[in-house]
């Protein structure tokens, strides 16, 4: 029978993913929920994979967020606004710029697509949301590395890209040439990418109506290209112009290859590699174990907090608890109750 994560486990997650964040990351619910989302992935990908946690229930992000609001000191005054906060977060996510890459074979006839983890998931180009203080190219390199294990730094040319506006979200995919079909792909993230495939560009849908048609493989599975078709026409135009010599050719473009670090990171994602992260005990021992699971940099960040910082945070926490009607837009996460509980 499945069970919910304990308060001790949630406390460890809170310390690891929230308490050590810079103050600027805790000044809005949107930023806070991005951190909670990272904690949720950690719970699903690593914590639940450990033999001793086999009975832990798989949670949706919304369910996990609800538990965090119930258990984390400082969030109590906002529990009644969780539905509004979560809805605003999802709306905000749809406005965050997306960056990624379209990888082409040397003859520019095929492009690489990735499929979501579930068999009925749609296909698309490797891409993801732009992080704070990250350049477009840096984001594209990071997302491709996470989703495919391929470092495209040497093959990415910042002048070669396609921009597409999808509702309120602007997307930019860099075009990376000379990727062999024999390239081995190994995603760094778990439970996010289920398959890779090279597709003939001329066979991909180029309009919304075409994307609604049934694309069935030899095994009878339907391929969904709703996230692909907006880029196909501009991609074909880019390739046509390149073949006609309309753009200068880059000399000696390095062929991107999977890195040794990528293979090591994929291996490190195995459950056994994260055994130190789920210390659970009672009282002070529990708190010490939670802190021990942090990296050296995390511990240093917490240790740098002065007694005055803790006192000021605690005072702010008392004020927040006394004002449950505080406007969501004025939210600022309070570390005080957590710091006092951990007794640094």
UniProtKB/TrEMBL annotation:
Top-level lineage group: Eukaryota
Gene Ontology BP terms: deadenylation-dependent decapping of nuclear-transcribed mRNA; nuclear-transcribed mRNA catabolic process, nonsense-mediated decay
Keywords attached to this entry: Cytoplasm, Hydrolase, Manganese, Metal-binding, RNA-binding
Cofactor: Mn(2+)
Domain Nudix hydrolase: 94-221
Pfam families: DCP2 (PF05026), NUDIX (PF00293)
CDD domains: NUDIX_Dcp2p_Nudt20 (cd03672)
Gene Ontology cellular component annotations, sorted alphabetically: cytoplasm
A single MF term (Gene Ontology): manganese ion binding
Localization terms from the record: Cytoplasm
InterPro entries cross-referenced by the UniProt entry: DCP2_BoxA, DCP2_BoxA_sf, Dcp2_NUDIX, NUDIX_hydrolase-like_dom_sf, NUDIX_hydrolase_CS, NUDIX_hydrolase_dom
Statement: the UniProt record of this protein carries the keyword DNA-binding: no
PANTHER family: M7GPPPN-MRNA HYDROLASE
Family per record: Belongs to the Nudix hydrolase family. DCP2 subfamily.
Protein name as catalogued: mRNA-decapping enzyme subunit 2
UniProt organism field: Chlorella sorokiniana
Lineage: Eukaryota, Viridiplantae, Chlorophyta, core chlorophytes, Trebouxiophyceae
């Amino acid at each position: 029978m499945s069970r919910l994560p304990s308060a001790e486990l949630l406390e460890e997650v809170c310390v690891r993913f929230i308490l050590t964040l810079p103050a600027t990351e805790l000044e809005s619910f949107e930023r806070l929920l991005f951190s909670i989302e990272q904690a949720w992935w950690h719970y699903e990908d690593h914590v639940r994979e450990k033999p001793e946690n086999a009975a832990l229930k798989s949670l949706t992000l919304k369910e996990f967020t609800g538990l965090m609001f119930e258990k984390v000191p400082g969030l109590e005054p906002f529990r009644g606004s969780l539905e509004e906060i979560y809805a605003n977060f999802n709306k905000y996510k749809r406005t965050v710029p997306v960056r990624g890459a379209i990888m082409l074979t040397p003859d520019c006839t095929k492009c690489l697509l990735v499929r979501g983890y579930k068999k009925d998931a749609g296909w698309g180009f490797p891409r993801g949301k732009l992080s704070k203080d990250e350049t477009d190219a840096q984001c594209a390199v990071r997302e491709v590395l996470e989703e495919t294990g391929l470092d495209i730094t040497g093959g990415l040319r910042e002048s070669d890209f396609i921009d597409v506006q999808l509702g309120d979200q602007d997307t930019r995919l860099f075009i990376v040439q000379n990727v062999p079909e024999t390239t081995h792909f190994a995603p760094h993230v778990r439970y996010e990418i289920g398959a890779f495939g090279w597709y003939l560009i001329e066979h991909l849908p180029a309009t919304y109506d075409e994307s609604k048609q049934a694309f069935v493989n030899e095994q009878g599975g339907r391929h969904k290209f709703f996230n692909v078709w907006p880029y196909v026409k501009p991609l074909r135009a880019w390739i046509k112009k390149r073949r006609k010599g309309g753009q200068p050719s880059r000399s000696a473009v390095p062929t991107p290859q999977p890195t040794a670090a990528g293979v090591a990171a994929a291996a490190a994602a195995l459950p056994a590699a994260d055994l130190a992260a789920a210390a659970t005990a009672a009282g002070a021992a529990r708190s010490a174990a939670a802190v021990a699971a942090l990296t050296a940099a995390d511990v240093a960040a917490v240790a740098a907090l002065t007694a005055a910082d803790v006192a000021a945070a605690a005072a702010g926490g008392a004020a927040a608890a006394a004002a449950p009607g505080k406007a969501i837009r004025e939210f600022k996460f309070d570390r005080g109750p957590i710091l006092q509980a951990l007794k640094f």
